Amino acid sequence: MDFVDQINRAHRELLNGERKVITMRRRYDADVEDVWDACTNAERLSRWFLPVTGDLREGGTYQLQGNAGGEILQCEPPRLLKVSWLFGPNPGFSEVEVRLSSEGDGTLLELRHTADVPPDMWGTYGPGAVGVGWDLTLLGLALHLTGAAKPDENTFHLTDEGRRSIIASSEAWGRAYEAAGGDPKEVATAVANTTNFYAPEENPS
User: Fold this and answer.
1) Residues facing 85 on adjacent strands
2) Which of 69, 71, 174, 183 is the most buried (most CB within 10 A)?
3) Which sequence spans correspond to the domains of the chain?
4) For 3-198, which CATH superfamily applies?
5) pLDDT at 205
6) What is the mean pLDDT of residues 178-190?
7) Is residue 163 within 8 Å of residue 151, measured between CB atoms?
8) Alpha-carbon radius of gyration of the chain
9) What is the pTM of this model?
10) Rounded to whole angstroms, how far apart are CA atoms 88 and 153?
């Protein structure tokens, strides 16, 4: 599997208002029920994303290991999952919605993340701060659905393929940012900062 090709298969949009909304769409060569199970079955989630605990039903709560947690706001198998997505000691509004629909003999996945983003963070990273993370997550899902092994998340950014994937994602979010009206100079700075955050250049010393 060509990881950069997988990154480039996603379509990205940004609504750059007071509340930021990033949207990703991509197709998987698997049926809706399989993709739904991969996204909601705790045992499968731990294989391609993160271990999850909680009362995993509508109205219940969840916690991803070392990451976000929140409430399961809507769960309509096998088409719609909506959760609050809270991370850190003082999280603002943040929700993630995943919609699945049949497309030919595969599945179209749409992921929408709506959040209040601190101005200093947005000014530094733009949409890539969360966008690259979601790109890598959806890459992990693609690998899982084909039975391929998940790369080591601690060393992926150090590999040539990992770094190229991160750069491709960061630049793609830069294009989405500019398409949403972002100033080209601010976009370029955000892309550089995002790339350096996810895949910093190795210190030659």
Assistant:
1) none
2) 174
3) 3-198
4) START domain (3.30.530.20)
5) 41
6) 98
7) no
8) 17
9) 0.95
10) 21
